[in-house]
Amino acid sequence: MKLVVTGGAGYIGSVVTSQLVVAGHDVTVIDDLSTGHRDAVPEAADFVEMRIHDCREVLIEGRFDGLLHFAAKSLVGESVEKPELYWENNVVGSFALLEAMRMAQIPTIVFSSTAATYGQPDDSPITEVTPTSPMNAYGSSKLAVDLMLSSYCRAYGISATSLRYFNVGGARGRFGERHNPETHLIPNLLKVAAGETESGKIFGTDYDTTDGTALRDYLHVVDLGRAHLLALEHSEAGSHRIINLGSGTGYTVWQVLEACRAVTGHPIPAEECPRRAGDPTSLVASNERAREQLGWMPEIGLEQIVTDAWNFYRS
């Protein structure tokens, strides 16, 4: 297939692009490099430095068979402090992209959605029928695009899949996580092991879990990428599917810390801090719909997630 990937110079976008190339697809990456890295784009992929707001001509001329949309701002804290950035980039940009896609008659889109659309649900594991109630502009902007996709599918017969994933880790060879600032648990713990920071932080040790720390769902980025390829294969005209991607069980913060210690051989001192406001006890995804509709199940566990992230970090 001839495919276009927006945000393909970012963490998840670059990994999925590398998987698409290996699978034999012809891939063009569109990225404005505001947070991505030019050297993260596989050499076999074409690259266009551009905002998604301005991509109509590229899409029309490209005659693409499908589109994978990763381009977005994704810092929760920033979205609270500067919501206008998230509405303009994630929503206005996605609207421009969908209009360009419609003009170019691209039949299929796979959208990088998020568990942040659910907010702080009472359900565990979280299913696709769990009510959406985002707590910040990041989650709200992603939900707005999900709703936009539903309307475009009904009106124009587009096939869309929104993949809502939770915490993602690991790396695929030279394609890995390089955020600035870094807000994710595993890379921040690995920074301690590498001697860049003195200690990690555990926010809350009095949760109703096996060890008192919050329970979160972690997926290897390679498993996540496989789901995107499967979503392309299982597209259906006029249909918008929303599918959660998760382990179905999750790991506590303490389990993640212990895995990082075991993999790196470093004690990784950790400071126990009070709970952060709004942090729920458990955020774990049901993967039943992903199994049924995509034939997808995660194959890689926490130790390998940390191992691949550590190898990438040291390289």
Automatic annotation (TrEMBL):
Species of provenance: Brevibacterium antiquum
Similarity section: Belongs to the NAD(P)-dependent epimerase/dehydratase family.
Keyword Isomerase: yes
PANTHER family from the UniProt entry: UDP-ARABINOSE 4-EPIMERASE 1 (PTHR43725:SF53), UDP-GLUCOSE 4-EPIMERASE (PTHR43725)
Catalysis performed (reactions): UDP-alpha-D-glucose = UDP-alpha-D-galactose
Lineage per the UniProt record: Bacteria, Bacillati, Actinomycetota, Actinomycetes, Micrococcales
GO molecular function, one term: UDP-glucose 4-epimerase activity
Name used for this protein in its record: UDP-glucose 4-epimerase
Source organism superkingdom: Bacteria
InterPro entries for this protein: Epimerase_deHydtase, NAD(P)-bd_dom_sf, Sc_DH/Rdtase_CS, UDP_G4E
This protein's record includes keyword NAD: yes
A Pfam family that the UniProt record links to this protein: Epimerase
Pathway per the UniProt entry: Carbohydrate metabolism; galactose metabolism
EC number: 5.1.3.2
Cofactor(s) needed by this chain: NAD(+)
Residues in NAD-dependent epimerase/dehydratase domain copies: 4-246
One Gene Ontology term from the biological process aspect of the record: galactose catabolic process via UDP-galactose, Leloir pathway
Alphabetic keyword roster: Carbohydrate metabolism, Isomerase, NAD
